[in-house]
């Protein structure tokens, strides 16, 4: 006899910080809701949440009026309240965005204007002397000091959310992968490796596999996810005094990546990086990790082909930096000249789920769509972790509108 489908009010796919925050917000609004979180891994925060740098972003980078700008600032406020209430360690160590050359100064000025427009408090322009006062070992011709930026361990945040949800009766189902979505108006039927989950409404926070899950539900085939691996070095512990907080370059406006930077972690370690190279697998955290299906889908996608043709030179430079430690070091020494090759120890890696459009455009803002009673999160890159509690409110509002 076939097992009966399990029925819920809301089903959430993915137990990263965004999926868990969504479950938390829905439960906060209505404790009587029957909520299930379905996760293919054995624990929460297994991929993007557990492999990011742990930065609490301020909102200074994002175009005023964009979802990123609004939800990062609001999400940071909600996150800090959440951390304080639960006594989760964090630190507002501040960030320097450093210009090395005259041609970067107009972009630095634009960031300053964005910070003011987005309501980022305390942004301050520094000269060379001011840079040395904040970060004695850093060099540059000008910088923005952003005191609102900070650090936290998002894996801890996700684990605590998962624990709270489980204690409050929200069902968390690990090691259960969604393999199909049946297109019915009501209920949503998720076919998993353990049977069928039925729910009145559903949210797919599938990260690196968000486009695949969306396609199963009948959503448009684009944007597609192109995975970019980012590798870090770790600063040798005896040299951790070279970096007090966060040191970032002035970002290139053509790309959603922020460039190689210096990140002090909440445990005192300092991460150096990341670079950005094409990952050969969506969950490929090592250079040798290869998934033929993932790679074929990327290479066959016309949007990626257009993107690669346009930016092949930058891609080649990233590959060189990935393969040659000396090239990586040279990028770092532009900001902290005292670094030596011996200061750089092998570090972790992450994979960014970058949504790319049909014509090779990299989506910068958050993106989500609704197919009948299923909300698909199509693009949620950094600062999604900072913004998670604010994004969850948006998703909950969207779900409420489906009633």
Explain the overall architecture:
33% of the residues lie in helices and 26% in strands. The chain has helices spanning 17-29, 67-86, 105-118, 128-134, 154-167, 210-216, 292-300, 302-310, 312-323, 325-333, 384-401; strands at residues 6-13, 35-38, 55-56, 90-91, 95-99, 124-126, 142-146, 150-152, 171-173, 178-182, 188-192, 195-204, 224-235, 246-249, 261-264, 270-273, 277-278, 344-356, 367-371, 374-379. The strands form three sheets. Strands 5, 6, 7, 13, 14, 15, 16, 17 and 18 form a nine-stranded mixed sheet that branches. Strands 1, 2, 9, 10, 11, 12, 19 and 20 form an eight-stranded mixed sheet that branches. A hairpin with a 2-residue loop joins strand 11 (188-192) and strand 12 (195-204). The chain starts with 5 loop residues before the first strand and ends with a helix. The model has no long low-confidence stretch (mean pLDDT 95).
List the helices and strands and how they pair.
Blueprint (H helix, E strand, L loop, with lengths): L5 E8 L3 H13 L5 E4 L16 E2 L10 H20 L3 E2 L3 E5 L5 H14 L5 E3 L1 H7 L7 E5 L3 E3 L1 H14 L3 E3 L4 E5 L5 E5 L2 E10 L5 H7 L7 E12 L10 E4 L11 E4 L5 E4 L3 E2 L13 H9 L1 H9 L1 H12 L1 H9 L10 E13 L10 E5 L2 E6 L4 H18 L2
Parallel strand pairs: 1-2, 1-12, 2-9, 5-14, 12-20
Antiparallel strand pairs: 3-8, 4-8, 5-7, 6-7, 10-11, 11-12, 13-16, 13-17, 13-18, 14-15, 15-16, 19-20
Helix pairs in contact: 1-5, 1-11, 2-11, 9-10
